[in-house]
Design brief:
The protein is of the alpha+beta class and 411 residues long. The chain has helices at residues 5-18, 23-30, 34-42, 49-58, 76-84, 89-111, 131-148, 159-164, 201-217, 235-248, 251-261, 290-293, 297-307, 311-320, 326-334, 336-345, 364-378, 384-394, 398-406, and strands at residues 168-173, 179-186, 190-196, 227-228, 268-275, 280-287. The protein has three domains: 1-72, lambda repressor-like DNA-binding domains (434 Repressor (Amino-terminal Domain)), CATH 1.10.260; 73-248 and 362-374, Arc Repressor Mutant, subunit A, CATH 1.10.10; 253-348, no CATH class.
Length: 411
Amino acid sequence: MTLTHEAIGERLKEARKNVRLSQEEAAQAVGLDRTAIVKIEKGARTVTGVELLLLARLYRRDPAEFLVEQPLQEDPITTLGRIQGNAPLEWSKEVSHNIEILKEAVRLREALGDQIHAFPPIYQLPAPNSYEEAIEQGKEIAVLERKRLKLGSGPISDIVSLIASQGIWTAAVPFPDDVSGLFIAHDKYGLAIFIHEGQALVRQRFSYAHEYAHALVDRNRREPEPTSTKNRNDFIEKRANAFASEFLIPAAGVYETLERKQKGRPSRASSWIWDAATNEAIHHDIRHDGNAHKISVHDVALLAHEYIVSYDVAAIRLRDINAISKSQLDTLLEQREKGKQLLKSLKLFDLFSEEKEAQDDQPYLMRQLVILGIEAFRRGKISAGRFRSVCELAGIPYEDLMPVAMADIEE
């Protein structure tokens, strides 16, 4: 069913406002006078095909979005822009660049005929009504998702690759300090997770897992909302935190690690065995060296390293599964700097450092773009000139990638 001129005009008006342009500014950009824009937006004047193309490009939209019945969605760059507010120019450039990479990657994926991509399942759960319900739901989903992905109980070495394998775009961007991540479900661009690039890598991993929970449960929320200090107490955010903890450092895996190291056992235990000679049960008290089985700061630090999570997450997880008491948790958290010092001494600290030079920014969105570009070129879906543009967008010399793209191509 074709939309009326009034409906098309209303959508054009909404899109213009989303990019914060006045009617006068929009008119000048496309070579019209302001009166024409006013009439088009009111539905009093038909917008021509050329004008629609120019306005769509100006508003960073696909022209088809103004002609179909489905609700007009906010462009991702507008969503990200709302988070930062009055963003400095350099921030806007970097975010815009990431969104342009995402859009080009979507176009390449469509050129390859992959318009309907396989996404992870949606776990249909009611909104939690209490903290306890939120935690229970988060853990339950994490267990089911690890089982679906056949992850066992071991560490997830590359959370970014794992999420990307589920058809979700991933990128690290310079969010404000009070924002850790954002999940977007867009009709045209698909599913995308953005996290704060300024965090230590262990925090980035937690943020990726947190936003992945939103992709699994909260995908149908129409308005994207960032994860921030403002909404940290919302039950759905608590649920996502519980998911991230169980997903990254599962209880079963922690139990296995403690058992392997013979940690967390009581200092005194008892044993009953059957005595064949007397034909009766014999009771024995067993005393262990208290320090031998006590979970200490180095155990927490090494557990954090094994599962690639922060020291605090590892310590809290031990409390969560009742491996330590509340007082032990408080003591271990006070000793976090000693744990970090151990990892530094063992040359295992890079993932926990917040220093920029110690990090790999994991520009996975760029990698996704390059791989799609190579595949599209090899299949004859894009020209060499288009492939050059892909390389420029990714910031990789064309001369470095062209030999890879050309390798073993049959004439």
